[in-house]
Write a structure and sequence with these properties.
Elements: H1 4-16, H2 19-26, H3 30-44, E1 49-52, E2 55-58, H4 60-87, E3 93-98, H5 103-117, E4 122-127, H6 133-138, E5 143-149, E6 160-175, E7 184-185, E8 193-196, H7 202-213, E9 219-223, H8 227-235, E10 240-244, E11 255-258, E12 260-261, E13 266-274, H9 281-300
Parallel strand pairs: 3-4, 3-5, 7-12, 8-9, 8-10
Antiparallel strand pairs: 1-2, 5-13, 6-10, 6-11, 6-13
Length: 305
């Protein structure tokens, strides 16, 4: 009989590309993972992995087995969810992956509310700029608070359920000069120095795409994905920044914040989890808290019209 843990190791190695990387993510030694995969190879009687440069790749037999392993692992999670639903209780642990720009206004309030409503639930929060949907499929995180910019085609891994939380517009942040705030036409930024995220990021691509649609290529004097640095440069008057609304503290002194008109730039914030036919009470509680925090944040700070 096939060992479910070994099937999960095969899936992890296939996703990570090497036994060493898989071992690190599983908190095991590379030798332990190799031994378990050797045992799995003995169980099925055929090679499942082959060298591929500095990485490893699935053989044809490994690919076929992984297709079945995905269904087996999904069925196991479905069974666990069904039992949890019968118990009707929120569990003891969950792992949430979230973007840094969502922590202050959404994640922190959501975790505070969860602590009050479900004191037995300990949520581990992984804050990272890197996309975590692959981690969701591998089971290392339970919920992802992610983003998708509206100009980017939607690509979602198989077996992932997504709940939209909030349309989050980018706002223009400049030094406060005492004048009345007004909407910015994106074309007005053609003559300003901008601080923008790297073009390799989703936000950087979205800004470049919108500026090109408005008929110009932005003058990017400063490049950083650090939103605190972007706002500091804007506050000093060195550049204008384009920052998601949820990442801006409206009480920040020395800045002026205005919406973009004509060519708005928006990201969709969403909560994602592994799809199951039966709702998992624990992930449902986490997602509900994120949704409530997102709605409250949207109503407590709206940019001037």
């Amino acid at each position: 009989m096939l060992d479910i843990r070994r099937l999960h190791m095969l899936k992890t190695v296939a996703a990570r590309g090497s036994i060493t990387a898989a071992a690190q993510s599983l908190a095991l030694s590379a030798g332990a993972v190799s031994q378990q995969l050797a045992a799995l190879r003995h169980d099925v009687g055929v090679d499942l992995l082959r060298p591929d440069g500095r990485t490893v790749a699935l053989t044809e037999a490994g690919r076929v087995l992984l297709e079945h392993a995905d269904r087996i692992l999904a069925a196991m999670e479905e069974a666990e969810c069904a039992v949890a639903a019968v118990k009707g209780m929120v569990g003891a642990t969950a792992t949430l992956a979230a973007l840094p720009s969502t922590v202050a206004r959404i994640v922190a309030p959501a975790l505070t509310a969860l602590g009050a409503d479900h004191p037995q639930l300990a949520v581990t929060c992984l804050v990272t700029d890197q996309a975590q949907l692959r981690e969701l499929t591998l089971g290392t995180v339970d919920v992802v608070l992610g983003q998708r910019y509206h100009h980017v085609p939607e690509t979602m891994p198989k077996g992932i359920a997504v709940l939209p939380l909030l349309d989050d517009p980018l706002l223009v942040v400049t030094a406060d000069d005492g004048s009345d705030e007004r909407p910015f036409g994106l074309r007005e930024l053609a003559t300003r120095h901008l601080v923008v995220p790297p073009a390799t990021t989703d936000c950087g691509q979205a800004i470049l795409h919108a500026c090109q649609q408005a008929g110009f290529t932005p003058t990017t004097r400063y490049i950083t994905a650090d939103i605190a640095a972007q706002i500091a440069l804007a506050r000093s008057g060195l550049a204008a920044a384009l920052v998601p609304q949820t990442a801006i503290d409206p009480a920040t002194p020395g800045i002026s914040v205005a919406p973009i008109e004509g060519h708005p730039i928006q990201r969709l914030l969403f909560a994602a989890t592994r799809h199951t036919e039966t709702t998992n009470p624990t992930t449902a509680a986490v997602i509900a808290a994120l949704g409530t925090a997102a709605r409250q944040d949207h109503t407590t700070y709206l940019p001037p019209a």
